[in-house]
Amino acid sequence: MEQPNLNYVDELAGDDVEFRGQFIEIIKNEFPLEKEEYIGHITNARIKETADIVHKLKHKFNILGMENSYRLAVAYEMELLKGKQDNGAKFNDVLTTIEAYLKTI
């Protein structure tokens, strides 16, 4: 499993420590809410809404340097729109990995 990192955030922020901190805080605040929303939609079989939140979450994967997970999310989003959930377990693993990482930064 690839690990999240802040390389993109660091590149974007450059020497602006305040911007970097604000960017990280936004991710740390938004991610748990989006994960909770995802779980609610998937639990209640709201497939279109699940695909929508997966679309939103995949951008966090990209920001956290998780290119393979981003591609997984793209595939999963397309699956959901076709009524499938083949990559659901892998997607959940990515969410768990990110959640643990965000607690360390």
- Average pLDDT reading: 97
- The helicity comes to over 70%
The profile of the biggest β sheet is:
none
User: Over all CA atoms, what is the radius of gyration?
Assistant: 14 Å
Secondary-structure content class: mainly alpha
Q: Give the domain tally.
A: 1
- SS strand fraction: under 5%
N to C succession of SSEs: HHHHH
* Low-pLDDT residue spans: none
Work out the helix count: 5
The total beta strand count reads 0
Q: Which of globular, elongated, flat, extended, rod-shaped describes the shape?
A: elongated
Write up this protein:
With 105 residues, the protein is mainly α. It has one domain. The protein is built from five helices and no strands. Helix 2 (17-43) packs antiparallel against helix 3 and helix 4 (67-81) crosses helix 5. The longest helix has 27 residues, at 17-43.
